[in-house]
UniProtKB/TrEMBL annotation:
Protein name in the entry: NAD-dependent epimerase/dehydratase domain-containing protein
Keyword vocabulary terms for this entry: Carbohydrate metabolism, NADP
Residue ranges annotated for the NAD-dependent epimerase/dehydratase domain, each copy included: 4-255
Record lineage: Bacteria, Pseudomonadati, Bacteroidota, Flavobacteriia, Flavobacteriales
UniProt KW NADP keyword: yes
Superkingdom of the organism of origin: Bacteria
Keyword NADP: yes
Cited PANTHER family: ADP-L-GLYCERO-D-MANNO-HEPTOSE-6-EPIMERASE, NUCLEOSIDE-DIPHOSPHATE-SUGAR EPIMERASE
Gene3D superfamilies: NAD(P)-binding Rossmann-like Domain
SUPFAM superfamilies given in the database record: NAD(P)-binding Rossmann-fold domains
């Protein structure tokens, strides 16, 4: 067994790679802009007080190949499988986020559409066991009102009209999923799509949701957190390490019962999010933008399908926020040496 993780030194990708190292699963880490030191730090910081475990992780790191890869370039993608034989699974996380897509639609289509098709082709041509890729809750549109009851948790079979969408990114994810199922039917390959909500945690460095890091990391470091929406805005949040665990478990399970899965998460208002942080850091300072009533995302996602499939329930919001705060402080301390 050997994994290829694309976008492997990004926010979620680095956590997936660290998860595979902990499992002692060989991995090839690919990214357009490699950040190897960041990815290694993610894995080692967790076991700073456990020298034996750090030694085990370091051994896995030493055996890992890090490569620059543009997933939109089919020749480059295919060369990975020729140069690193034995790859059996892909976790595909190389994708341009919504703001990047809107800034450059040509590049966005190249990476997000052609890059995805290149990965589907590799699964078929190299007879891989499974590809798991990151879809998104944005495929459900920009407003929960499309599903009626505000307390309804959106399920995998729910869809809305293109008129209910805001993000080009989300519509791209819909086409990715549609195309994946064509490949599964026509070529008999195994693909699964995960639909994460807002993924929070320390270390997010780019994208349009940097606030999903800053809401807890800033207070942890004595800074004010500015959230670009009302304190009454409701969203679904999942901790980054839990999302990584879901990706890996879904990739490893021999047989799956479905194609698409909601990651789930905790549905909370920004006010509730702030109070969670304040329960840990009482003097945390926040600033909201009350001129923006809500984010352009659905409010609740049902995760029962995935929980049943992989037997994993994400940690509580408080546990996740506490883990983020601890990591942010550990990283600041380490980087100050």
């Amino acid at each position: 067994m050997k994994f290829l993780v694309t976008g492997g030194t990004g926010f979620i990708g680095a956590r997936v790679v660290a998860n595979l190292w902990e499992r002692k699963i060989p991995v090839v880490v690919a990214d357009l802009n490699l950040n190897m030191e960041w990815t290694k730090q993610i894995a080692l910081l967790k076991y700073k007080k456990d020298s034996a475990k750090m030694s085990e992780i370091q051994e896995q790191i030493d055996q890992t190949s890090f490569i620059n890869l543009d997933v939109s370039n089919r020749e480059q993608v295919n060369s990975v499988f020729l140069n690193f034989p034995g790859i059996t699974h892909i976790i595909h996380l190389a994708y341009l986020m919504s703001a990047e897509v809107e800034a450059d639609h040509h590049r966005g289509a190249s990476v997000n559409m052609l890059g995805m098709i290149n990965m589907f082709d590799m699964v078929a041509e190299h007879k891989l066991s499974r590809l798991v890729f990151a879809s998104s809750e944005t495929i459900y549109g920009a407003n929960h009102s499309a599903y009626g009851d505000e307390n309804y948790a959106v399920k995998e079979e729910n869809y809305c009209s293109p008129d209910d969408h805001f993000y080009t990114y989300g519509v791209m994810k819909m086409l990715n999923e549609f195309t994946a199922q064509k490949y599964m039917k026509n070529k008999g390959i195994s693909i699964a799509a995960m639909r994460p909500p807002i993924v929070y945690g320390d270390g997010r460095m780019r994208g349009s949701v940097l606030w999903a890091c800053e809401f807890a990391t800033n207070p942890a470091l004595g800074k004010k957190a500015k959230l670009p929406f009302s304190k009454d805005s409701r969203d679904c949040w999942i901790y980054v390490d839990d999302a990584a665990e879901q990706f890996v478990r879904l990739a490893l399970k021999p047989k799956l019962n479905h194609f698409a899965y909601n990651n789930g998460g905790h549905s909370v208002t920004a006010e509730e999010l702030m109070q969670t942080v304040k329960s840990i850091i009482p003097d945390a300072e926040y600033e909201f933008d009350e001129s923006v009533p809500r984010t352009s995302l659905v409010d609740r996602c049902d995760s029962s399908r995935l929980e049943k499939e992989i037997g994993f329930i994400p940690r509580s919001l408080e546990e996740g926020v506490r883990a983020q705060i601890q990591e942010a402080r550990q990283r600041q301390l380490q980087n100050s040496y």
